[in-house]
Design a protein that fits this description.
The complex is a heterodimer of chains A (158) and B (265). Chain A is α+β, with helices and mostly antiparallel strands. Chain A is built from 5 helices and 5 strands; from the N terminus they run ββαβββαααα. Chain A has a 5-stranded mixed β-sheet with strand order 2-1-5-3-4, with helices on one face. Chain B has 265 residues and is of the alpha+beta class. In chain B, strand 6 and strand 7 form a beta hairpin. Chain B starts with a strand and ends with a helix. Classes of the chains: A alpha+beta (158), B alpha+beta (265). The interface between A and B is medium-sized, with 27 and 27 residues. The complex binds flavin-adenine dinucleotide (FAD) and FE2/S2 (inorganic) cluster (2 copies). Flavin-adenine dinucleotide sits at the interface of chains B and A.
Chain lengths: 158, 265
């Protein structure tokens, strides 16, 4: 079947199998940041935006994304770069396997709620599993990032 | 994972229903549960083109289209106000935001899963299921009906003078619940729904008025003890029947007291 998707701002038309999952579709298009971390819709590693909402690309048929906008980390380079670099500088992660899904969902959180509190961060990111960090480093990294952004906005240099 | 021969976005409910009469075909809501099953599907019937993804609120009721996501239920201001936060509490522990942006209320209710937070919280409300051919059925009745090949169109919640509370116990965040408990205190009675027993959620109405109206602390405890005696529980790897029965005592008391407090009685 034929589908039209706006992937990272670019309109593409492709012939697909009806049971192709969105994760496999975007990887075929070269979006290798999107990875499969589980078979049970539990880990959040495959997070993409469907019309700006974070969803699990491992659990959505590509057919259902027909006529919609799909965004992966590759399409958010500018927005992701600042946050990604900050998290790396903070040493917030260990192996980094969970990083793409974690960054996508953190960006979704900042879009919905630009100044989230600790509990709001924990709740929004609860669907992003990490096998190494125990989440403390990531939480500290996000809180420091938000404080840094706030200072930057107020013109305070660090 | 299933294999799918054809994908069809239904243009009308009649088309969806007709396609669904073939044993090989399968309706999809969010597809999260369907994806975990195995086998070959002829045609998947996608309901996402029918405009059934809205939550409408009137003076007297909520009308929730089957394709509304669990995240929509969680974030709906009218549902939050009416349920005193109970609906949000029931949704917010289900896996993650990305999951709840896909999972639908139709798939959740049609599935009639024992562990369902969604069914547990809806069951203490004056909630109905509207089936395309089967008409409007009280949710508590629908949950125990056999699976057929009808289409669940929407959930209807009638607004009554009532206060609600919802609590669960989970081994870890985002895991399936070990036990769910919802409570409602209305001007006529006190009721609880207990799910993840591990069987389907069960509604218990306090016909003996043990909890009292207005609810008292001693009354809530007496009703919770009664509930623990009459609601059957079972063993799973998440908890024993004995543990679940103990949890009924704790959660029933807490939710009834909380709902009673919100009711101001
Ligand atoms: C890993 C995982 C963890 C979960 N954890 C929880 C939890 O903690 N708490 C909880 O409450 N739930 C939990 N769930 C269940 C989840 O919330 C949804 O209830 C479930 O995925 C079904 O919703 P869906 O939209 O994905 O439905 P689908 O998977 O699309 O459909 C489920 C069933 O309903 C049928 N169906 C769907 N829509 C309709 C319709 N409109 N009319 C007729 N038939 C229909 C389908 O054919 C299928 O048989 C979990 C699910 C998964 C996969
Ligand atoms: S790959 Fe784990 S949730 Fe999608
Ligand atoms: S840092 Fe290794 S999985 Fe998260």
């Amino acid at each position: 079947m034929l589908i039209n998707i706006v992937l990272n701002g670019k309109k593409i038309t492709r012939e697909i199998e009806p049971d192709l999952l969105l994760i496999d579709f975007v990887r075929k298009e070269g979006c290798f940041s999107v990875k499969r971390g589980c078979e049970t819709s539990n880990c959040g590693l495959c997070t993409v935006f469907l019309n700006d909402k974070p969803v699990l690309s491992c659990s959505l048929l590509a057919a259902r994304a027909d006529g919609q906008q799909v965004t992966t980390l590759e399409g958010l380079q500018e927005e992701a770069a600042e946050f990604g670099a900050f998290i790396a500088d903070q040493g917030a992660e260990q192996c980094g396997f969970c990083n793409p899904g974690f960054i996508m969902n953190a960006l979704a959180l900042f879009r919905e709620n630009p100044e989230p509190g600790e509990e709001e961060i924990k709740e929004y990111l609860a669907g992003n599993l990490c096998r190494c960090s125990g989440y403390e480093g990531q939480l500290r990294g996000i809180l420091n990032f938000l404080a840094w952004k706030k200072d930057k906005k107020r013109g305070v240099s660090l | 994972m299933i294999t799918i021969r054809e994908y069809k976005k239904a243009a009308t409910l009649e088309e969806a229903w007709e396609l669904n009469q073939k044993r090989m075909n399968r309706v999809i809501g969010g597809m999260l549960w369907v994806k975990m099953t195995k086998g070959n599907v002829g045609t998947v019937i996608d309901l996402s083109g029918l405009g059934l993804d809205k939550i409408e609120e009137t003076e007297t009721e909520f009308r929730i289209g089957c394709m509304a996501t669990l995240r929509q239920l969680e974030e709906h201001p009218g549902l939050a106000a009416y349920s005193g936060g109970a609906v949000k509490e029931a949704m917010r522990h289900i896996v993650g935001v990305q999951f709840r942006n896909l999972a639908t209320v139709g798939g959740s209710v049609y599935g009639r899963f024992g562990f369902s937070d969604v069914i547990s919280v809806l069951m203490v409300m004056d909630a109905y299921v509207e089936m395309y051919k089967g008409g409007i059925i009280p949710l508590a009745e629908f949950v125990n009906m056999p699976y057929d090949r009808d289409i669940l169109v929407r959930i209807i919640i009638k607004k009554n003078k009532a206060s609600f509370s919802y609590q669960t116990v989970r081994i870890s965040k985002t895991d399936f619940p070990v036990l769910t408990c919802a409570a409602a205190v209305t001007d006529k009675d006190v009721r609880i729904a207990v799910g993840a027993r591990p069987g389907k959620a069960m509604l218990l109405i306090d016909r003996q008025q043990l909890a009292g109206l207005p609810v008292t602390a001693a009354g809530a405890q007496a009703f919770a003890e009664y509930a623990a005696q009459v609601i059957p529980t079972g063993n799973t790897n998440r908890g024993s029947a004995q543990y679940r029965t103990h949890l009924i005592k704790v959660l029933a008391q807490r939710t009834v007291l909380e709902a009673g407090g919100k009711a101001g009685c």
